[in-house]
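Take a sample.
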Amino acid sequence: MLSRPSPRPPATRDPTAPRVNRDPRQLARLLAFARPSRHLFVLGLLATLVSSGLNLVFPLLFGRLIDASFLKVGSTDTGPLDRTVLALLGIFALSALFGAAQSYLLSRVGAGVVADLRRALFGHLLTLSPRFFADHKTGDLTSRLTADVGTVQTVTSTALAQLAAQGVSLIGAVTLLVLTSPRLSLLTLAVIPLVVGTAVVIGRQIRRVSREVQDRVAEANASAEEAISGVRVVQSFTAEPVEEARYGRGVIASFLAALKRARLQALMGGTMSFLTFGALAVVLWYGGRQVMAGDLTPGNLVTFLIYALQVGGTVAALTGIFNQFQEALGASGRIFELLDERSDLPEPAAPTPLGRAQGRVTFDHVSFQYGDVPTLRDVSFEVPAGQVVALVGPSGAGKTTLVNLIPRFWDVTGGTLRVDGRDVRDYALADLRAQVGLVPQETLLFSGTVEDNIRYGRPGASPGEVEAAARAANAHAFITAFPEGYATVVGERGVKLSGGQRQRVAIARALLKDPRILILDEATSALDNESEALVQAALDTLMQGRTTFVIAHRLSTVRNAGRILVMDAGEIVEDGTHEALIAAGGLYRDLYERQFRKEQEARAELV
């Protein structure tokens, strides 16, 4: 945001990046999601096959209708004609009935598969560690969750049934072609290998380009997601043109990729249309000569032409299905890339039970590094249950990293972190995190009501318990001042509330959770004095009887902490009370005096 780069050409895919697996066996994994609806799928498949079989009868009856009309000129016996028309109407009615049943049943199966796949994918994403989300853009993940899952819907429902139906139609139509006129059949079938070869060659290119389209759309979505979520920063830097240009580049890249796919699909469709109808023209010419020679009746020629059209239409339909499979393989590769992702925070094979924790936390020669960058170095200290510990130090000292190790947002890369004397990796993640409460500087509220956000701490809480938590957090008064009270909708990320109000809702949420270990990460640094006083009073209530880690840059807020740990460059350099650290004359005293002078200067400017 500090500079405004000139528009760049669309980014190309990193050739060194791992390629997504496009094994056709992925389709079998997709079909596993259709298993709960397999009975409906089988019924839909049967309806499709019956409808396809009935369509094979239509050309034969139509040919008989032609012969009954034109080969008996002057006859008054309309019985054969009447019976043939009635049979045709019956065939059309049955075909329409089974076609409607097929459409409904398979659409229901497809919708169910998409819903189950999206739930499975989203549920799996929630199990992944913060490291994964640091390495992946939100827009790309949501694109896979929506667009890519939608792409595979046709394959898991209609495409498979259509594949079976078109297979039946092709086999049946070819058989009836040969029975109607063997010589014309040879002429017609000679073009099929050429059509299939065209479909395979161009289809491979369509498959590659379809994956490129999906990647480009995901990149554009990621740009939009970042700009929208950070719209205040964008507008404060008047960087709207920059973000518009960045998103525009992504849209243009996806547009160009879509055009490339459209050209390939048009080439395939045009080529096969010419081959199909060109072959029919030759068949019509040669069949007309046979009718003139008396070797074939007009009705048989019409029947043959309709079967030939069915063969051509079936081959074209199979080509379309082939294209759908190619697109689905690209999309399923992106989906299963996420489903196959494994968290770098493994669950223990036999987790140690953790009921109501005492809250004793021990860092035993703990080190941590992200990639090649060391963040913590040989940190050792113990916090007894119920003690309040303040963590101070310059920016980048490792304070937030240290507290993020307690709920296992990250795992230590050296040493051992213990809760109640046991390595945190011995506990189930859910059990460990149930004992830890977090109130960060930037409070995230969800786009529901105030009550929903407080109850997030304990979904089964009663309305009375929610209100009690709000009262303890000094939030009840401002909540009841809203016309809708606890039913007030807070807006996306809580934008309808002030910073102090959001913090008090977050504190009420943590109170309702009732954790044994509490982490306060700059919980009051962004508030005005009045809001800070209300929030600090709520925090004092929240900290009672809990092991608490307080991170604060404003050292005046931690003077009364029972213990202060001073960090610098990933190490604990000082440990003591405020008075002892001031008397020692080390880093803490330097930080305190520097901040004290700044506060005095700020007050003097106000005067």
In short: The beta strands are 361-370, 373-383, 388-392, 414-419, 422-423, 436-439, 517-521, 547-551, 563-568, 571-576. The domain at 30-339 is CATH 1.20.1560.10 (ABC transporter transmembrane region fold).
